[in-house]
Specification:
about 130 residues; Udp-n-acetylmuramoylalanyl-d-glutamate--2,6- Diaminopimelate Ligase, Chain: A, domain 1; alpha/beta
Amino acid sequence: MTICEIAGILDAKWLCCEEEADRTVLYAFASDMMSDVLAHVGEDTMLLTGLINSQSVRTAEMLDVPCLVFVRGKLPHKDAVQRAEQIGLPVLLTSCSMFEACGRLYAAGMTACSLSGYEGEADDDDD
């Protein structure tokens, strides 16, 4: 799916790097916790977050994230958008909640990234 298609699905506004609209994104990951992003996000995975400071952009930069989407209509700090523009990171802004944004993308065929190390079982402290 292209970033342009993602912007349409999310009724998102471009904050920078619209020239990257034809770039392809294969997976999505949503989190406000950058430690989770660092643990699970790989190449070709877009990030949806409500964390509006420059930490989200720096994390995306470290992981070569192809697109960053700010959810809940939260305007990112000016320095975050400036840094994204410097590094060529497309940034979108949607008024959708994180849940709705993920649902829309999933319904449109976006795939979640693999959660490496997740075994699918909760800790059982009742023993």
